[in-house]
Structure formats: C-alpha cells, structure tokens
Design brief:
Blueprint lengths: L24 H5 L2 H4 L4 H20 L5 E6 L5 E5 L16 H7 L23 H6 L1 E10 L2 E8 L2 E2 L4 E5 L5 E8 L11 H14 L4 E6 L3 H4 L3 E6 L4 H8 L11 E7 L2 E9 L7 E6 L2 E2 L5 H20 L10 H5 L2 E8 L16 H21 L1 H27 L2 H5 L20 E6 L1 H10 L5 E6 L11 H4 L3 H10 L16 E5 L4 H17 L1 H5 L3 E4 L4 E5 L2 E5 L2 H11 L5 E4 L8 H9 L6 E3 L5 H12 L3 H10 L10
Parallel strand pairs: 1-8, 12-14, 15-16, 15-17, 17-18
Antiparallel strand pairs: 1-2, 2-7, 3-4, 3-7, 4-5, 4-6, 8-9, 10-11, 11-14, 12-13, 18-22, 19-20, 19-21
Length: 645
C-alpha cells in the first residue's frame, strides 16, 4: 500500500494563515459578495445604493427632491434635500458621523428604528461599500446652516471633515463618486438602465421628484440629457404607464391602500382585454423583488379567493373551475409594501422572506378588493367573465399542453421528422438552428456539424402569439415543433433547466420577410419562454449579404460598409458581386463557412435590457392597433434589412 505523501510544513493550516481584512479591505478583496458582480449590474448597483439613502429620507418625509447626474468625467453625483448626514463626533468611535457612515460596514441610522421607521437600505450593502469600490468619493453635507465636505480614495479618508461654507436655507447630502476601474469590468454607466430605475422609484414614492441628467455629451456636443420623474398618482400612474396604448377591460386601475401592524400595503391593478400576458411587479421598501416572496404570494392568494367567492355568490362562474392563472390573465398589477424590518434573501434582495407579511397582505387585499367588487358590480362581472373564458380555453388546451412535455412529445407521432437532432446529449454543448424554409433547412442539415448542431426548418411564418391564447397557439404545427424540440415545456410550465440546447439560433433571410419571421419568433420566445432570453440562450444568426469574387478570391460580406471596403481594396474591375436573396441560395459548404462555423460565424445574442421597452415594442409590432405599427415601419423602413438585436 502506497504511503500518503507528507505535508510540507508551509501547507499546514495554522493561525498564521488566517488573514484579517480590516475595514473596507474585505469589500475590495471580494466585491461580488457585496454587490453581486463586477459587471454592468454591479456597477449600476453602486448608484442604487447611494440613491437608496436619499429615498429613505423621502419615505420618512424629510426629502421631496433627488437629483442624479452622470458627470462629464463619468462619475455620478446624487444630491437630496433631506436632513443631511450628521457630522458631529460619535461618542463611542470619536469620529464624525459622516466618516463612520462612509467607512464602516453596517453603520448608519437605520438600526435603532428611531431615525428610520422604514428603510430600503436596511438590508443593503450601504454607501460604505460604494466608497470602498470607488477610485474616489466626495461627500458634501448641508446641515445646521453650514456646508461640510470630506474626500476619500478607495474607501480611505484623505481629508478631514471640513466646513467649506454656510447655507442657512437648505439641508441635504450630495455624494459624488468615480467607480474604480481596478474593480469593475466597465465604468461606463448606461443612461437608460439608470433612467428606468429612477422612473420606478418616482412611481413608488408619490410626490417625490427625481431629476436625472447626463452631462457626458455636453463638452463635445453641447447636449445634455435630462429626465424629470414626478408622479402625484403614484403606482396608479405606474399601471397606466405599463398599460399605455393597450385596450383595457375597465377604464381605470383598481387602487387601495391600508396600514396594518406597522405595514403599509398599496396595490394598483388593471386587466388588459386583448392581451393574455400578465405583468405583476412586487416591491418591498422600494426594492423590486423580482423573485416575489411572501407579499406576492399573499396578493395572489387573496385575488383568487376573493374573486372566486364573489363569482360563486353572484352566479357568475358558470360552474367552471377557475384557477388563479385564469384571474391573472392579462393582469397588470403593482404591489408596493413598506415594512419596518424586511428580510430579503441574499444581498441582491430579489425575494422577500418575512413570513407574517403573507397573512397581512392577504387580509388587506381580500377585504379591500371585496369592497371594491361589491361597489362596482359591472367591473366585477367583466373580470370574472374574462377568467371564465380563460378557464375554458385552458381546459381545451390541457391535452395539447401535455403533449408539449419533452418525454411525451418526443415519443409521439407529432414529433416532426424534419428535426435533425445532434449527437451530443449535453445541452451546454448543443445548439439548435431554427431555419426559415425547407430549402435552407436542407442546406443547413448537410453543412452542419452533426455532433453539436441540430436543425429545425420552419415552413413560412408562425402564428402571431400576441393575438392567440395558448390553446389556439398549440394548434399551430410550427409552434409545436419548436416546443417539442427544445423540450422544456411552455408558458407557466416552462423550465429552462430542461432545455435540450443552450444555444437556440434563429436563422432567417436578410430581407423584410425574414425580419418579420424573426419578430414573430421573438414574440413567441418573449411571451412563452422568456427565461431562455434571460439566461442568454437565444441568438440570431447573421448570414452574409453578398458574395464577392475576383479571380480565385472569394469574400463574403455582411454589410454595405464591408462591401465598400472590399471594393475599395480589390477595385471594381473584374469583380463579381452576388446579392444573396435568401439562405437557400447558399450551398451547404457556403452556409457552414459563413453562418454556422463557430470559428467564422457572427451571432447576435438576444437580450432583454428593459422589459418594459421590449413589451412596448412587441405590443406595437404585434398588437391590435394598426396605425402605430404603420408609423413605426415607415420611420424604420431603411433599417428593415439590417436589424441588430
């Protein structure tokens, strides 16, 4: 028996191997533990943390204006008219209050339940982490008629708290910081990402004015971007904003609010009549809890129970078994709660865990909604009638829906023979090409790498799922082919972990028809397989526009600009230019070399940067109203053959 090797003394785990990282050094050592990541998401999280402090002042009634500015040098300034961070010396730490807040983890006025009864930042990482991850930071405080300033470098103070002036009229805090390029993959802030968060915060805090500016283009072009968000209607205006341009089942959102056991619950909701997609946004202390939690489960339970009780008591349900999904079909809702001690799961705060909140929300929503239904019987009737129709459609779709499950459908005769699967069973190494037309599909099947590339040809255009319920959608053969090939279900039953491919590539002709088919497919994936897009599994192939030959040389080019470059290089004499009208014009070898070979191909990953803007675009292109769609097409006609995602 071979003896185990002796450990070298230097490998022994002893006390001298334990590193103690003082203060904010731990944050710089492991930044992702505190802000989730060091990519664009983590970068923008810095702004949210600073703004959260100002929002907390607003929730306590001390602040009604916040200004957020991306400065010309790329730094960000957040200014509010709140009380101002205390600057007097702390009795225990012998440091000014502002320096403690900026340099100590878990320090602030939110832990004694006196300075802040409700706070979104209570479970956040705090402004001290922003300080630690910034190349430099400066804080100015207006308080007690004076203006104070302190500066920091990578979390460490490089100046004392100094009085730099007097201002007896106002109070507040201004924090300016430059994210550290040593920490972040990029330090370039995206205006639209921050803009949507500022808009969201203004909706959630009725009457608060948020001014958002971008000064980066002022120096070069003299242009300043500026948006002002101020909503006296609060979350009612939020629902109106989401439902703008869509046909509503009833004219105004249902709204109610109540306080119970120190918890403020506010709900606004409205059903759309022509759309079957739901959008329910849940917030706790201004934090968007994307994974839901106890407040969302309480709302859903109350909605189902209350509408069922009202419908049965008034003979409106037609003896149909209605489920919660049926009542939520086409629903837009915003649930906004504020509570003293939120328990969020993880630093990213995507799910609320307070167990007592479910019962509180369920009680308030149940009571208030029942009162509304009894006072507005005509609205109650149309809501329940829509749910009855949805329930009947769901029951009609049940058999078809069962066929979408991977095992059942893959073993059934409905599995399209035109699907040419790949040999590799590992989803992370497999990709599915959804190809426009049998001709191009044939070339793709012959030209592909059979080990990891599967091909699914489609005949013509799929059904517009924006205008069809699930049961009618599942009657479409092309839709069923896509669902069965991916093998992860559809809609509410969709499970991205079951996807048979981690690259799903839409490959259509580079013309108007191809763009239309792409849009139809994007609509389907957005509505019924959205997690695929969120996980980065959906792509768009970029086939070449031209084949340029001269003598024995061949170049495939993908844009007009690239064509001009080749012609400038080769000259026009003796050059042959072939414009590809469709994928079917390429033989298998050409298709492989230009569009399918991982070494040479160009793929555009489909992402959802802003769900609201994506939803608006899909509704515009695929919805009921013709005039807005016509206007959009006319304005974008020139780009119709060169669409980027």
């Amino acid at each position: 028996m071979e003896e185990e090797p002796m450990l070298d003394k230097k490998d022994i785990y002893d006390t001298d191997k334990i590193k103690v990282l003082e203060g904010l050094k731990a944050v710089r050592k492991r930044p992702s533990m505190y802000i989730g990541s060091t990519d664009e998401n983590g970068l923008h999280h810095l702004v949210y943390e600073v703004v959260d402090n100002s929002i907390d002042e607003a929730m306590e009634g001390y602040c009604d204006r916040i200004e957020v500015t991306i400065k010309s040098d790329g730094s960000v300034e957040v200014s509010d008219n709140g009380r101002g961070i205390p600057v007097s010396e702390h009795p225990q730490h012998n440091l000014p209050g502002v320096e403690i807040v900026m340099t100590k983890l878990h320090a602030g006025g939110k832990f004694d339940r006196k300075s802040y009864k409700v706070s979104g930042g209570l479970h956040g990482v705090g402004v001290s982490v922003v300080n630690a991850l910034s190349e430099w930071l400066e804080v100015k405080v207006k308080r007690d008629g004076k203006i104070y300033r302190q500066r920091y470098k990578r979390g460490d103070p490089i100046s004392e708290v100094e009085m730099i002036g007097e201002d007896g009229a106002t109070s507040g805090t201004t924090t300016t910081f430059m994210p550290d390029p040593e920490i972040f993959e990029t330090v370039e802030f995206d205006y639209n990402t921050l803009k949507e968060r500022m808009r969201e915060l203004a909706f959630l805090n009725k009457g608060l004015k948020i001014v958002f500016k971008d000064e980066r283009r002022v120096v070069e072009e003299g242009v300043e971007k500026k948006d002002i968000f101020h909503y006296e209607g609060g979350i009612v205006e939020f629902v109106n904003y989401i439902n703008e341009g869509k046909e509503k089942l009833y004219p105004e959102p249902i709204y109610f609010k109540r306080r119970e056991d120190g918890v403020h619950v506010e709900v606004a909701m409205q059903h759309k009549s022509e759309s079957y997609a739901k959008e329910i946004l849940a917030f706790a202390n201004n934090i968007h809890t994307k994974e839901g939690g106890t407040h969302l489960s309480g709302f859903r339970a109350a909605l189902t129970r209350t509408l069922n009780n009202y419908g049965e008591a008034n003979g409106l349900t037609d003896d149909v078994q209605i489920r919660g999904d049926d009542y939520r079909e086409g629903l837009t809702a915003v649930i906004n709660i504020k509570l003293p001690e939120p328990q969020f799961e993880g630093q990213t705060k995507t799910k609320l865990g307070n167990s007592e909140i479910r019962g509180i929300v369920q009680s308030i929503v149940g009571t208030e909604l029942m009162t509304f239904l009894e006072e507005n019987p005509s609205i109650a009737e149309v809501i329940i009638d829509k749910a009855v129709t949805a329930a009947k459609a769901r029951q009609a779709a049940k058999k078809a829906k069962e066929l979408t499950r991977r095992k059942g459908l893959l073993e059934s005769v409905d599995l399209p023979g035109k699907l040419a699967d790949c040999a590799n069973p590992d989803p992370s190494k497999s990709e599915l090409y959804i190809v426009e037309g049998d001709s191009a599909g044939g070339s793709a099947k012959q030209g592909r790498d059979r080990d990891f590339q599967a091909i699914l040809p489609l005949r013509g255009k799929i059904i517009n799922v924006e205008k069809a319920r699930l049961n009618r959608m599942l009657e479409n053969k092309e839709i069923r082919s896509i669902i069965s090939a991916i093998g992860a279900g559809v809609g509410e039953d969709f499970d991205p972990d079951e996807s048979r491919y981690h690259k799903i590539i839409i490959m259509t002709d580079a013309d108007v028809d191809g763009a239309h088919i792409r849009t139809l497919l994007f609509t389907f994936f957005y509505r019924y397989m959205k997690p695929l897009i969120e996980r980065g599994y959906l792509y768009m192939a970029q086939p070449p526009l031209y084949k340029i030959t001269k003598g024995g040389g061949v170049r495939h080019v993908y844009s007009e600009a690239e064509k001009a470059e080749v012609l400038n290089e080769w000259g026009k004499r003796g050059v042959s230019i072939q414009r590809y009208k469709g994928l079917g014009e390429m033989n298998p070898k050409e298709l492989w070399e230009t569009t399918m070979d991982p070494e040479n191909r160009i793929l555009a990953q489909v992402t959802i940067e802003d769900a609201k803007e994506a939803d608006d675009l899909f509704d515009l292109l695929m919805g009921k109203e013709v005039a807005p769609r016509r206007e959009f097409i006319q304005q974008n006609a020139k780009a119709a053959t060169n669409i980027d995602v």
